[in-house]
Write a structure and sequence with these properties.
12-stranded antiparallel beta barrel; 16 strands; 5% helix
């Protein structure tokens, strides 16, 4: 797994730091004195340019996960035995401590519900719903490399997850809707990259997440470590409008600390297409659709996504 992570890191670095010509068809040498277009950024992939010292932004998301099935252990799509939905509304608070250091706090609201269910654990129960706070995450991000003509912006990421989502005293008659969090504390270390190739922004994330042992319901579990690899591109059409495309993925890994996990290996690969409207220096909006394309031991979701961002 470590060799695979090293290989992925080298591939991403090579793509974003390669000498470039303009994607618009004419040469456009990088000018560090000329500000790049300001965009709201991707819907899933994290950005790499800090918000700036003393600046604050608030960005709520509205994501409706519509489960169309499940991915089996051998990557096949199978029935989910019911209609399951999850409305997730994470609110991002981003603050710049210094020109290169920023904090990102994510506080999510989650509402799960199920219809037409036929689950062995709750025979005769067809519908349920539950809502509340999800797991909260705090990220510190430090830019150690500014973008140059040949190098991308590089930002080191450290994240701390807190099990604030409901995960104890779960009831079978709730059909799984009452589990709003993982029950584990998590630590994430990673790298964010971005590069401007006129008229396109490219982004990449490579993160490694380590969970602690957790109690979910009445069970003690230790989940697998998780590798996150996201890629995104924004095609800036005008000063206000931009097209968005993303690839997101999560991959299982062995446990660096604690006991080796007995949980089934899970993986997920999907894509996002979207549209952005960057109204002015304060307001920006974006919407898109996320499609889970492949995976194993994971739900298969179709997810309409909307977000707005306000910069103070």
């Amino acid at each position: 797994m470590r060799s695979r992570l090293l290989f992925l890191s080298l591939v991403i670095w090579g793509i974003l730091s390669a000498p470039h010509s303009s994607l618009a068809g004419d040469s456009a040498p990088f000018n560090p004195e000329k500000p790049l277009p300001s965009t709201i950024g991707p819907l899933i992939t994290d950005t790499a340019v800090p918000i700036g010292q003393g600046n604050l932004s608030i960005q709520p998301f509205c994501n409706l996960y519509i489960t169309g099935g499940r991915f089996s252990p051998n990557w096949r799509r199978v029935s989910n035995r019911g209609d399951f939905y999850s409305l997730q509304v994470p609110v991002n608070f981003n603050y710049g401590f210094t020109p290169n250091l920023e904090m990102l706090l994510i506080i999510p609201y989650v509402h799960n519900w199920a219809r037409n269910a036929n689950l062995p654990a709750a025979p005769g129960v067809r519908a349920a719903d539950f809502d509340g706070l999800g797991d909260t995450t705090l990220y510190l991000k430090y830019r150690f490399q500014k973008e140059t003509a040949s190098l991308p912006t590089c930002e080191a990421v450290s994240g701390f997850g807190f099990p604030t989502g409901h995960h104890l005293h779960l009831s079978s008659v709730k059909l799984g809707t009452d589990q709003l969090g993982s029950g584990a504390y998590t630590f994430t270390a990673g790298l964010n990259l971005s590069k401007w190739y006129r008229p396109v922004y490219l982004y990449a994330n490579l993160w490694y997440t380590v969970p602690t042992t957790a109690t979910v319901g009445s069970n003690r579990i230790h989940d697998r470590d998780l590798v996150t690899l996201n890629l995104a591109a924004e095609w800036v059409l005008t000063r206000q409008w931009a097209l968005l495309a993303e690839l997101y993925s999560k991959w299982p890994a062995g446990n660096l600390v604690g006991p080796q996990s007995q949980q089934p290996s899970r993986a997920l690969l999907g894509m996002v297409v979207g549209l952005e409207y960057n109204m002015n220096q304060h307001w920006a909006f974006a919407g898109g659709l996320a499609l889970d394309l492949a995976g194993k031991n994971n739900p298969c979701n179709y997810t309409p996504m909307l977000t707005c961002k306000y910069n103070f």
